[in-house]
Amino acid sequence: MAASPSISIAIVGSGGAGALTTGDSLLETACDAGWHGLSTRTLGPQIRGGEAAGLLRLSADPVACLPDHFDLLVGIDWLNAHRFGAEIKLAPQTLVISDPRGGELPPMVTQAGARVVEVPMKEMAKAITDGRPNMIALGIAARLLGFTPEQALAPIAMRLSSKGAAAIEASKAGITVGFGAAAGIDFDMQLPAPKPSSARRWLLSGNEATGLGAIRGGVRFAAAYPITPATEILEWLAPALTKVGGALLQAEDELAAINMIIGASFGGTPALTATSGPGLSLMIEALGLATSAEIPIVVVDVMRGGPSTGIPTKSEQADLNIAVYGMHGDAPHLVLAPQSVSDCLFTTQWATYLAETLQAPAIVLSDQFMGQARAAIERPADVSFIGARTVAKDITAAYERYALAANGVSPMAIPGTLGGQYTADGLTHTQRGTPTSGEGDHRAQLDKRRDKLEQFNYGDHWSSIEGDGDLAVVTWGSVTSAVREAIECAAADGIKARLVAPRLLLPARPEQMTKALAGVKRILVVEQTHGAQFHRYLRAHYDLPAPVRAFNRPGPLPITAGEVHRAITEWR
Amino acid sequence: MSKAPAAPKVANLHDLLAIAYQIEIDAVDRYNLLADQMETHNNPELVKVFRDLARAEGIHGEEIRRMAGDFDVVNHARHIGKFADDSPEEADLGSAHYLMTPWHALQLSLKGEERALAYFTSIVNTTKDPAVKKMAEELVEEEAEHVNLVHRLLRKHPEPSKNWADDLDPPVSQE
Amino acid sequence: MTAVDTRNVYKQADYKSDVKPIWCPGCGDYHVLMSFTRTFAQLGLPPEQVCVISGIGCSSRIPAYTNCYGFHGVHGRSLALAAGLKVTRPDLTVVVASGDGDGYSIGGNHFLHACRRNVDMTYVVMDNHIYGMTKGQPSPTTEPEFDTALSPGGTRVRPFHPLVVALASGANFIARCFSGHVNETADVLVEAIRHPGFSFVEILSPCVTFRPDEKAWKDLVHPAPVAATNDAAKAARRIMTDDGFNLGILYRGNRTPYQPAAGGTHTDLSQLEKDFEL
Q1: 3-class secondary structure, C259
Q2: Chains touching B, CB cut-off 8 Å, 3+ pairs
Q3: CB contact under 8 A, A425 and C72
Q4: Sheet of C121-127: strands edge to edge?
């Protein structure tokens, strides 16, 4: 995938400069013209007017992670831009466009020895009626990347369509001026020609993909309590669910949200909620209820920096522990983790299917990086994973909701079904569902709930397993794409490695993992946590047949392909 | 609960001088607060405007200290009553905006000076103390000059276009 | 497809399950169960169309003692669970059962929002002014001077006014009953269920084990002196100044119940996917 040439751009600005809009617009321009790309943002702590940077990476092939350094940095102004020093790494060959009146060059520019070209964007904008410096910047970037002013204007015109022709004219003039100003600037990078493809392509965020995946999987009810960085899932679902005959209800808190989806699911409607770490903590009790009462639900956790309130606007992978171990008692359940913006759709759909089929709660561990990144992807194929709950109908004999069954899944009577009346309970229960403290029933029901998950055939989707070599690099979630890119770079150095990235974290798949690691001589575990949660999870659930090294570090910075590449090459 | 009086009581000349001094100091603090806000929100042009306004008010405060002569107006200001809400020259915090322009800041300043002018005029019209009345009349003159000064500054900073507050980037959810 | 049931007359016994309640003999909740079954029979509701949702506590055990669909959920969250159920299954009759601990303490926040949201359901709180299941701690309605192990000498904290809170939050029907008056309570519940929107019925239900003093309730309760009003402020004043033992329907509002528009189950997702296309 992404070892092919790519160009990475950062647009920096503050106080209403519109840096993010500029970055997003460039991504759309590139994708409309046939390229692939990924964009993310990084922001100051203010709610409005803060310093902001749009970060994008463009390529002829799908892009799933950010680069080790940026090739082009456009500074609309440099106010407080030093904040982004750790995230916007430059190289001596990076081209920096700077407004001489935009403030002092930040250390990340001066220390990298990058080439600086001054363009008085603010002055140029002032000469245009309602001119804006970011349109000048957009024009400059567009030319350097090989786009036309028309291509650059199109996404902006769409955004401004409600503001009238004058606003669009002003932007057009700005882009044209910027385009002209870039005429003499040397930028010797060029994107390879876009690959012609018959596949339909989409541009969307991981959170949007999550919402659509849920609906494809059959979800028709969502309960919502907003939390960064998950809120967009719920805001996307609100009108979307209505369009497909479903509904979204805003809850007063996460405790209400998870109980609402349990109620909706009890009534027969596949249901989902989305939250982040602090919300998942609140939901743990009710997840146990859904486990015990065997009610299918999907809870998406878009992980952010932790612990506690943590870093709400940054990514991390440290909710693994609570997702896997959070419930009190022995409560086997489903935990899944998408690996990219595109995979957010598939994994959420699959999670819905599994939850419905196995009558269990599924936690989907997404993260802020994937959730809020926008990427061009190929339209995900329609797959047959659509929720298919085993439902009790035409009941003639005394109904036992939790009857022991060969595959552990007992038909569920939906309210309204004659003869199927039962009381769902978090109390340990008999096959009928009546509360009990007897050891026979307790054991039987524990076995049932464990076995139904462990005996299910999950097929090949349980993990990405790619390549071969003495070294296996084991990772999960959004780090997968950085590892994939690192392995490709290592191949150029003559090091061959196998990538193993489980998508299904619970129940563990010991047989399959043994097969996946067969023959390797070294295992490198890579994750974005401080406490090596994934490493410990692997040791707890799996035999690791070779020496293990762990490369883990916490957020807020994403793990880069370069870091993983170094870890690979340092361990020969 | 009885309502606090809108303005502190002016019993004598010392009270008036102390109140006049406090009005300037309140204005200094308020303009500096606004300058801090502008700094945090990356509006350097307005940082300068508000710091300049704060400095100007500071100078006015010093003038009142001079007019007070030997009387320790700073100490007396600590002991007199306060205005119930904003004191006359405190710029309205609710009118601040991260994209505000010098014209907006000067409008706030103009309103402040006009309020101070009205306040001292009311003292002139209501006081029975001749010393207070004389000083209040001087203060009215001073404030009238300040009003004119702001008008002159406004001529250098035209009203911005109607989309001065447009920001294509959306607000950020920080938590 | 559910089997078509041609019975249209149900007996009280049709709504009782064969599960023997764990409540202490003398508990007011036995009477409440009787009122429930009488109510459902009066309304002629097929048992499979009724859902009784509860939280945790003695009162919350009631779903399993009925022959309806039930959910014995986690402590304090029954109203949320019921909202998710009713909004997706408006065809069902949803009754929520709780106690003064489950409903007013841990459930307090959900109580406010359920009244505010006004989804069509009936909320029955069996109030015994104590935490019974956990053996006698004070609840938000316990008298401030009532001595308990957890609050020696009494809590010294003013009790909650649940009916007034319900009014202020937007509940559409408010009544107070006494468990011992089984028929009258059933009549009120019938009206509560029939009344659109969020109906709140507080049933004073003595706890024989931890509040033996509540035996006196049967002599303290009395019918409310005036008929129900549809004026919320008037109702609030009446309730705030009553002695806590006024029985009857105290408020009937006319808010429109909250129910998202029912659509079909369209499975064509192309409209959603169009927005992503490049």
Answers
A1: coil
A2: A
A3: yes
A4: A423-425, C69-72, C50-54, C93-99, C121-127, C198-204, C173-178, C246-252, C222-223
Supply the pTM of this predicted model: 0.93
CB contact under 8 A, B99 and A21: no
Query: How many whole angstroms separate alpha carbon A269 and alpha carbon A283?
Result: 19
Question: How many Å apart are CA A556 and CA A435, to the nearest integer?
Answer: 46
Cβ–Cβ pairs < 8 A, chains A and B: 72
DSSP line for A143-161: HHHT--HHHHHHHHHHHTG
Give yes or no for residue A558 having a pLDDT over 80.
yes
Q: Per DSSP, what are the bridge partners of residue C122?
A: C95, C199
Round the average pLDDT of chain B to a whole number and report it: 93
Residues 33-52 of B with CB under 8 A from A: 40-44
What is the Cα–Cα distance from A389 to A372, expressed in whole angstroms? 32
pLDDT of residue A482: 98
Contact of A222 with chain C, judged by CB distance below 8 Å, is answered with no
| CB interface of A with B, residues 229-258, below 8 Å | 229, 231
pLDDT one-digit tens code per residue, A267-309:
999 999 999 999 999 999 999 999 999 999 999 999 999 999 9
Q: Where are the alpha helices (DSSP H) in A227-300?
A: 231-243, 254-266, 277-293
Choose the mutation target among A39, A47, A126, A304 for the interface with B, i.e. most B CBs under 10 Å.
A47
The domains located in chain B, with CATH, are: 13-156 (1.20.1260.10)
Tens of pLDDT, residues C14-43 = 999 999 898 888 899 999 999 999 999 999
Strand, helix or coil at A71? Answer: strand
Supply the ipTM of this predicted assembly.
0.88
